[in-house]
Amino acid sequence: MPTFCKLGLFASLVLFVAACSDPATPADASDLDSGAVDSGPVDSGVPVDSGVPVDLAGCPDVDGDGHASNECGGDDCDDGDAARYPGNAEACDAANHDEDCNSATFGTRDDDADGHVDAMCCNSGPGGTTCGDDCDDTRSGVHPDAPEVCNGIDDDCDAMIDEGVLATFYADCDGDGYGGAESVVGCAAPTASPATCPGALWIGVGGDCNDARAVTHPTASETCNGVDDDCDTVTDNGGDAWCASSLPRVATASCTAGACSITTCTTPYLDCAAGTAGCETDGATDADHCGTCSRVCDFRCRASTCDDAVEIRAGGVFTCVRGASGSVVCWGQNGNGQLGDGTTTARTRPTPVIGIADAIALAPGNEHMCVLRAGGTVSCWGKNSAGQLGDGTMTDRRTPVAVPGITNAVEVDAGDFHTCARLATGSVMCWGGAGVGVLGDGTTTPRMTPTAVSGLTNAIAVATGRTHTCAVRSTGAVACWGGNIFGQLGDGTMTARTMPTAVTGVTGAVDVVAGDSFTCTLLGAGGGIRCWGTNTRGQLGDGTITQRLTATAAIGRGTTAIATAPLGQGHVCAITSSGAECWGANSFGQVGDGTTTDRRGGLGAAILLGVDGVAAGGYHSCALAFGTVLCWGANSDGRLGDGTTMDQWGPTTVIRP
């Protein structure tokens, strides 16, 4: 290059280019077109061939800004504009003016001091235009890093307003917390009521497929009703399970056409009542639906099987029935626990005795109760003031206790304060009070455990009264012992006996009953009834009220069974060829003839027909007739079992347990 080019002797760029061309070096076509030695990108601020040292002494500074043109290796990107040169402060403008010859800078204006440059600050370069990122430099809360809020402004400078923060509000016409079809979009719920349901609220949850029914919404439980309760477009899905879980005691069920149908009930329940939801009937205990809806029991349903009454006995103030299964139910007065249900609460309807399932015979006393159990054992409960329960104590028992030492009993009978058991050997054991020799062991000593009756080895029946005891021997004779003040021992005297004494004039006896100071025996082969002792109410049945010290015939017809109680006013009931008949005291209607007039013999019409069993209590009577249990007489403590405490002068049906 000529020396004068280095000296910058030419003022004109054109002349400079022409003069500085090296004649020894041919010009490149691009050099001729561009007029530059080696043109680079605009605003690069450095020569293109920066790797080669450049002598800038000959480069002009046309605009006088102290920077030579980049066309000859200088750094001025525009030597015709004194406001453009490297190091100059980049101004914030929208005209893309590059003050510092660096296209990557565009100014630093941040009027709202939010750390982001105003988007109006721009610069252009080879890569395009670059600007600040603050779309509103007057709001410090508006910049690319700001969260979008619902305010009608593009808070995060993404050219979208309120994106992701606008809410949809739905009219909740039925108030179930879910809106229906009517909706609005906004930052807040409208204050005005929905047009479709004035007065309702706008809420932020929709999806209600029936906004007129509060129990229909997306989180509702699907039922069986023909309605899409949970808004999943499927009606009654899961309806079978709902039917089974919502209906009482149902095991499986089906939902068809919006209605539940029971398939199976939870054992032992039954679906017997039309129009009643669920399996309402306890098939284990309901006597009208025992095991099946069609099975009706005469008396009791137990474990889904009819447990019909097979024996009825009446105590002084209560009544008991034995079922075919061996269970026992009792009702009436319970002050000493004689009902055996674990309480001392009187019952006006049958209640089960706890722990007895194998009874084969009943023996009610005045205020205590005993049963003969399978295997020949005896259990007792109730009053025990004289040791009449035989358990070695004088403690009342509210539930059955075993009588020790009795293992081969075939009969048991309970009196007022004592009890006796007949053994398979023909001997008799007694226990309890013995003030007048009622235990028959030759003494008047009370016994709290069983003691043998002296000289009795061939008994076929035993009966305990209030203060005396009798037994039928295998010969048909009758022997009695104990108190005898009214001639109840039948030996022609009124002398008490501590051991068995023969009853005068009785042969052919097959059974015997002992009441309150009187005795009756049933003779075999149609021999009728013989009675003796007190007769103040006509209880001897001979048509008089005359006391008898020896047996006298009672007026009756073809008697097959007799019954009386150890305490009371004195009346007798019997099963005759005509049915059930009673005679004697009748102050409470216990004779059952519809009056309260005493009867002196079985001369009236039969009370009941079809009788299988009869019982006489202190002031009431009962019978089994065609499987039904009926009672009549005094009822102040519920001993009639009809659910009331009203006396009845004629037979009334005992409520089935």
Secondary-structure map:
Layout: H1 3-7, H2 13-20, H3 29-34, E1 122-125, E2 128-131, E3 167-172, E4 183-186, E5 201-203, H4 239-246, E6 250-256, E7 259-265, E8 269-270, E9 281-282, E10 301-302, E11 305-306, E12 309-314, E13 318-323, E14 328-332, E15 347-352, E16 359-364, E17 368-373, E18 378-382, E19 397-402, E20 409-414, E21 418-423, E22 428-432, E23 447-452, E24 459-464, E25 468-473, E26 478-482, E27 497-502, E28 509-514, E29 518-523, E30 528-533, E31 548-553, E32 561-563, E33 571-576, E34 579-584, E35 611-616, E36 620-625, E37 628-633, E38 648-653
Antiparallel strand pairs: 1-2, 3-4, 3-5, 6-7, 8-9, 10-11, 12-13, 13-14, 14-15, 16-17, 17-18, 18-19, 20-21, 21-22, 22-23, 24-25, 25-26, 26-27, 28-29, 29-30, 30-31, 32-33, 33-34, 35-36, 36-37, 37-38
Describe the structure in your own words:
This protein has 657 residues and is mainly β. The protein has a domain at 3-72. It is 4% helix and 30% strand. A 4-stranded antiparallel β-sheet has the order 12-13-14-15, with no helix packed on it. Strands 16-17-18-19 form a 4-stranded antiparallel β-sheet, with no helix packed on it. A hairpin with a 2-residue loop joins strand 33 (571-576) and strand 34. Residues 1-54 have low confidence and may be disordered.
